[in-house]
Structure of DNA-binding transcriptional regulator, GntR family:
Amino acid sequence: MTEELPAGTGSRTAQKKPTRVDMVATALRNEILLGTRYPRERLGELDLAEQHKVSRGTIREALQRLAAMGFVLGEPHRGYSVREFSHEDVVGLGEVFAMIELQAVRSIQFPVSPETVQTMRDAAEQMSELDLVRDFDRFWELDRTFHGSLIAECKHPWLIDTWRRQQPFLNVITVPTILRPGVKYPGEVATERHLKLLDAVVGGDPEILQRAIEDHYHQHDTAEVSPGALL
């Protein structure tokens, strides 16, 4: 029986026409990424509904989606605000993802399957075509496909589920790297870094792979927190 892959892995599905909720969520997400919305800024449903010319119900659904992705914070009786994370939070979350991936590879029977290698390679190479700010959704999808395919090789449902539950916070360690002040982070760089990790996966040497995973996630340690970005 084929092991079920974590959400976000596998081939790209046919594009559906975006709904109003999709469009509002994307617009708000981009405002947060590009610094138009600031950390702790309140996101009033009525004001946003008037701004986007949609119902408050549409705004509420969009905010709920952004909360699930880790971009905004919802509080009872206070509504939603742009989520704020410290630099220490970014580094700590990077370490969490590294630990999950390290635990997974300790359980993998190497070599990994050719299908997994090809899926990871395809995802990494497609990153080079992206503008990582404009195409953030696609980049996030490819990144989840790359890492999720590797995680799935461990065959441990609880570890796969742990990885899946952490996905909303992947934005927290990705955004400051992409939006590092004064530094352009093109898709080609993302491809290079993911292919470097894939080389270690294909090589199958546990020590080399451990260092590659740590290096891959610890690149976020030096990311500066942009005052107008998510963090």
Q: What stands out?
A: The domain at 87-222 is CATH 1.20.120.530 (Four Helix Bundle (Hemerythrin (Met), subunit A)). Confidence is low (pLDDT under 50) at residues 223-231. The chain is about 60% helix and 5% strand.
